[in-house]
Amino acid sequence: MTDFRSVEAAEFRLAMRNLASGVAIVATGRKTARRGLTVSSVTSLCMEPPCLLVGVHSSSETHGEILANGRFGVSLLGRGQEDLALRFAGGVKGVERFATAPWKQGVLDVPLLEPAIGALECVLHHHQLVGTHSIFIGRIVAIRGGSGDPLVNHQGALRALPPGEPDCLSSTASRTS
């Protein structure tokens, strides 16, 4: 398999712009040691045990803090939280990123955005460095539900999905069975 060249980063980035991804803030730490960043690389991994996967650039200040703390929170963003997503994506650093929104510490003592449309608390189950990023697999130990229209990243822009029919999948499933 080493006979195949990798595609160029610019080609890959252009292709991946077509994959709509949910937007979340991954955070860890407490008080002045809080660190967090915006990600669009979060996905469910398995149900037994319940785990998710998140990709984090190894040079980010949050990367080392997740490793040091062994736990992290994932706050799912929704409509109207574009500014917060951009704040955690760059510019402002460190604990200052947390200054413009209400946060609370979860059961794992990790920061969770209070107005998030959902939040998950994870203990670090596995970590793997791959190129410039690390894959963190978190075992989910607490969930806080919420509601709202999800914020997605598509074609390099943050957009809220329009409200949909709440039972569209179950309605389709019942018609096809």
Please give a structural write-up.
A seven-stranded antiparallel sheet has the order 3-2-6-9-10-5-4. A three-stranded antiparallel sheet has the order 1-11-12, with no helix packed on it. The N and C termini lie far apart (42 Å). The chain is 19% helix and 40% strand. It has four helices and twelve strands. The longest helix has 9 residues, at 61-69. By secondary structure, the chain is an alpha+beta fold. It is globular, with a radius of gyration of 17 Å.
What's this model, at a glance?
The protein is of the alpha+beta class and 177 residues long. The chain has helices at residues 9-16, 61-69, 82-89, 168-176, and strands spanning 21-22, 24-28, 35-39, 42-47, 50-57, 71-76, 103-105, 111-113, 118-130, 133-144, 151-154, 157-160.
Attribute tags:
single chain, 177 residues, alpha+beta, seven-stranded antiparallel β-sheet, three-stranded antiparallel β-sheet, 4 helices, 12 strands, globular
In the sheet with the most strands, the strands line up as 3-2-6-9-10-5-4
Helix-strand makeup class: alpha+beta
Strand content: 35-45%
Q: Topology as H/E string?
A: HEEEEEHEHEEEEEEH
User: How many strands, what sense, and barrel or not for the largest sheet?
Assistant: 7 strands, antiparallel
Mean pLDDT: 90
Instruction: Calculate the terminal CA-CA distance, rounded to whole Å.
Output: 42 Å
What share of residues is helical?
Answer: 10-25%
Tally of individual helices: 4
Low-confidence stretches: 170-177
